[in-house]
């Protein structure tokens, strides 16, 4: 009979609580800020608002994925992208269960929280609400939100953890 303590849990690992908690915080923070920007600050009515010489607030509805790729104009498009977000969250939850580094767990949590935040937008609004516009002089980067920033930082953390951790494992086994 297998020992229950030694049995690997499919969706629960030593750092799952950290990653899932961070994901929940990011998703809630993203949704609260979007609600505030849309219904309290009323960014759509204000147009472009200069905050600093390199940061403006401006309302952009992104009907695609990151960087405005794969724009979806149909009614089914946002639903399919929300399903894709859910699939990513499930996959990351499974991967998180086997993670052994805090960097990996934080990265997974950030990506999951961002995917959930943007997934909610797609289901509620049919598009993702973006409003932070970074620029240097006349060079403007894409317009983003908390969820987008979390996804970018989270992916960077996962890539770093994957490269460094796997490099360390290879070096230690030699």
What does this protein structure show overall?
With 174 residues, the protein is α+β, with helices and mostly antiparallel strands. It has one domain (16-32, 51-173). It has 5 helices and 4 strands. It has helices at 16-40, 43-46, 76-96, 102-125, 146-173, and strands at residues 49-52, 55-62, 128-136, 139-144. Strands 1-2-3-4 form a 4-stranded antiparallel β-sheet. Strand 1 and strand 2 (55-62) form a beta hairpin. Helix 1 (16-40) packs parallel to helix 4 (102-125), helix 3 (76-96) packs antiparallel against helix 4 (102-125) and helix 4 runs antiparallel to helix 5 (146-173). The longest helix is centred in the last third of the chain and has 28 residues, at 146-173. The radius of gyration is 19 Å and the shape is globular. The model has no long low-confidence stretch (mean pLDDT 86).
Write the layout of secondary structure elements.
Blueprint: H1 16-40, H2 43-46, E1 49-52, E2 55-62, H3 76-96, H4 102-125, E3 128-136, E4 139-144, H5 146-173
Antiparallel strand pairs: 1-2, 2-3, 3-4
Helix pairs in contact: 1-4, 3-4, 4-5
**Spatial order of strands in the largest sheet:** 1-2-3-4
User: Which overall shape is indicated by the principal axes computed on the Cα atoms?
Assistant: globular
Describe the biggest sheet?
Answer: 4 strands, antiparallel
Helicity level: 55-70%
Number of strands: 4
From the N-terminal CA to the C-terminal CA, the straight-line distance is 35 Å
Write down the secondary-structure element order: HHEEHHEEH
What is the mean pLDDT?
86
**Overall number of structural domains:** 1
Rg to the nearest angstrom?
19 Å
Alpha-beta content class = alpha+beta
How many helical stretches?
5
Low-confidence segments, given as residue ranges, are none
């Amino acid at each position: 009979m297998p020992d229950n303590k030694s049995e690997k849990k499919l969706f629960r690992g030593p750092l799952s609580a950290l990653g899932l908690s961070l994901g929940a915080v990011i998703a809630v923070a993203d949704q609260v800020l979007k609600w505030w920007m849309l219904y309290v600050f009323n960014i759509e009515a204000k147009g472009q608002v200069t905050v600093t010489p390199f940061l403006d607030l401006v309302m952009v509805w992104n009907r695609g994925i990151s960087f405005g790729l794969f724009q979806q104009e149909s009614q089914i498009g946002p639903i399919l992208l929300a399903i894709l977000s859910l699939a990513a969250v499930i996959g990351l939850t499974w991967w998180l269960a086997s993670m052994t580094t805090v960097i990996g767990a934080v990265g997974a949590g950030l990506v999951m929280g961002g995917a959930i935040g943007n997934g909610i937008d797609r289901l509620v609004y049919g598009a993702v609400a973006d409003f932070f516009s970074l620029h240097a002089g006349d060079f403007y980067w894409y317009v983003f939100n908390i969820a987008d920033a979390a996804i970018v930082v989270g992916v960077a953390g996962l890539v770093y953890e994957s490269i460094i951790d796997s490099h360390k494992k290879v070096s230690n086994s030699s």
